[in-house]
Amino acid sequence: MTNFTQTQHDLLYPIRQWLEAIEIHDTKLAQFLCKLIPSQCPFERNIIFGRKQIHIPPMCKLNPLYDELVGLRFKAMCFLAEN
Q1: Which residues is 21 bridged to in the sheet?
Q2: Residue 2's pLDDT is what?
Q3: Whose CA is closest to 83, among 6, 27, 12, 16?
Q4: Do residues 44 and 11 make contact, with C-beta atoms less than 8 angstroms apart?
Q5: What's the rounded Cα separation, in Å, for the pair 36 and 2?
Q6: What is the tens place of the pLDDT at every residue in 18-60?
Q7: Is the pLDDT of residue 1 over 80?
Q8: Which residue has better confidence, 55 or 71?
Q9: d(Cα 51, Cα 22) in Å, to the nearest integer?
Q10: How confident is the model at residue 7, as a pLDDT?
Q11: Buried b / exposed e along 2-31 (16+ C-beta atoms within 10 A)
């Protein structure tokens, strides 16, 4: 739970609330969300240049709405599992 001073400085707070408030009542919407929101971070890579390997870390955790999007995908998956 967030306190007032934290929400006062969080410009994305209204979007976070909106994403958390979305309820899934339609199978097509649930399927769309499961396809739209990836189950794993698609950006993590290991790139090899000759003998050197460069690791690019997952960028999903840098997304400020990552937790809310993962939660929305989870709601959609639960809806599909129940119906």
Answers
A1: none
A2: 54
A3: 27
A4: no
A5: 28
A6: 999 999 999 999 999 999 998 888 778 888 988 999 888 888 8
A7: no
A8: 71
A9: 48
A10: 60
A11: eeeeeeeeeeeeeebeebeeeebeeeeebe
3-state secondary structure the chain: CCCHHHHHHCCCHHHHHHHHHCCCCCHHHHHHHHHHCCCCCCCCEEEEECCEEEEECCCHHHCCCHHHHHHHHHHHHHHHHHC
Whether the pLDDT of residue 8 is over 80: the answer is no
- Rounded to whole angstroms, the Cα distance separating 56 from 38 reads 18
Which residues does 11 contact at the CB level (< 8 Å), separation at least 6?
Answer: none
Residue 38 in tokens: 């990836």
Contact 80, 31 (CB under 8 A): yes
How distant is the alpha carbon of residue 22 from its chain centre?
14
